[in-house]
Amino acid sequence: MKRKVFDLERLTVIVVFLVLFLSGCNTDSDDKGRIEVLIVSSKLVPTGTNPQTNTLVDVMELTKENSNVKYYLALGTIEGFEYTEGYEYKLKVQIIPIKNPPMDGYTESFKLIEIISTIECDKQ
Predict the structure, then answer these.
(1) pLDDT, tens digit, for every residue of 25-50?
(2) pTM (two decimals)
(3) What is the DSSP letter of 15?
(4) Whose C-alpha in 3, 39, 121, 123 is 20 to 30 A from the C-alpha of 100?
């Protein structure tokens, strides 16, 4: 009779351990984000105002390839990318959702994977 109690206790411990171990595994693919190709405009776009100085803020205008989806990002927002006005860029970026974004900030982070092309545009 004691042998069955011991086996039941051992089985219970193993089951509890497996449940805790497996529940700790994160299978949420959103953490890795998504990969997109974005076209960066050769000119900065004035949009919005800086609340501290009440001046217009120039941002990069990015268009998702084969789409009308646009992003407006401050300079330095794409990790690993340095923008130079007068050049149009085609970038492969990883876009990662921010778990607890600030109320007045971006909800996604952008990380450069590759500069696919750089084209010098006429400066007008």
Answers:
(1) 444 445 689 999 999 999 999 886 77
(2) 0.68
(3) H
(4) 39
